[in-house]
Amino acid sequence: MGSSMKKTFGSYMRRYWPLYTMLLLPTAFCLLFKYWPMTGLVMAFKNFKMMRGIWGSEWNGFANFEYLFSKSESIGVIVQTLKLNLFDLAFGFTMPIILSILLNEVRSKPFKRITQTVIYLPHFLSWVIIASLFIMLLRTETGIVNVLIANMGGEKIPFLEDNLLWEIVYIFIGVWQSMGWGTIIYLAAITGISSELYEAATVDGAGRFAKIWHITLPGIRGTIVTLLIMNLGRILGSSFERVNSLSNPYVVLKSANVISTYIYRVGLANGKYHYATAMGLFQNVIGIILILISDRVAKSMGESGLI
Length: 307
What we know:
The chain is globular and about 75 Å long. 73% of the residues lie in helices and 2% in strands. It folds into two domains: 2-59, no CATH class; 71-300, Orthogonal Bundle (MetI-like fold), CATH 1.10.3720.10. The chain has 307 residues and is mostly helical. The two termini are 29 Å apart. The protein has a two-stranded antiparallel ribbon with strand order 1-2. It has 15 helices and two strands.
């Protein structure tokens, strides 16, 4: 059996050697820039000293993790990250589903194409541009929104200076930026549903809402479950650019104090790389565990899952 496998591999190499040659560069890229940096994770278990380097620093076991979780600030950072991401998941995950179903019911193709293009455009903008745009709109003194409110006789609202309002703006901007990409995915899944099912439902007298509930939603359930599993894996993750671009360290530091900004502040600003690495490792391990659990739950419910 071993000789047959070697023979098969050799025949594939002789026949498709140009393709394997083309594969060398991306494979080397992944090994060099994706996997080799992961060796730096050992800093989470060391008392890292810059002059000694990663491998010359002394091992200290789980002391870094014990230090992090003994501080109230670290616990607060994890809780705040979880809070923002749960709200982000609740609104940012459901909105593309609702929007894709509504667009699927639109009969005007030009309107449908224009709407898809408009809601998809924010996906291509960087968070620096998006944050700058909304800061100009929502700034308390000179923002366009507050200027209009003041001109109409109302009081200016500190959208970016109040912790609660900042969190609402943060969630809203995240939903606005990501819903176009999610809508494209769900619309592609909806197009895979057989039109005969809708025709049969029409013959049976089913209305639009009945078709959506009994045909469209079950037809895209697999896609919903797959994307939900992937989003649960990022429940403790957060985009540094998104939070940092919108944050104000003098006013909303409490709301913007999430894991990504904490790692930047502790690791790069204060030079405590071992603590930052420990927090990052904890974040990713929890993400993997959540993916495995949600995948197992999805399979127990009859779905194909992710793995």
